[in-house]
Amino acid sequence: MIQYLVYFLVGGAVVTAISMLAERGHPLLAGVMTLFPSITLVSFYFIGKSAGNEAVAVTAKSCLISLIVWIPYIVAIIWLSPRIGTNKALLIGVLIFIILAFALVYANRFVGMVQT
Q1: What residue ranges in 6-112 does DSSP mark as E strands?
Q2: Which end of the chain is less crowded, N or C, counting CB atoms within 10 A of the terminal residue's CB?
């Protein structure tokens, strides 16, 4: 259980740092940091430590394939935020992400892009 607390604290620290950058007038740096492999770096480290190297490779492949889910989410946020506000744009973006993620997972069962 201690390891999950460490995961939570490390992830929270990263999100806090990125939020502080954006709030203090550095949105480009915050955007770059958001895309910086901070979450994947920490996640891959802990996955490698607990599940091994092969699990990291499979998870990384899943991340790459998942870009087809992430790109429509980001495009929705970019397009909708100025039109309907951030909260509604985030809600719609997350719904798009969830729907596409379920479709990707379902498609993977038939096509086998990522072997589990």
Answers
A1: none
A2: N
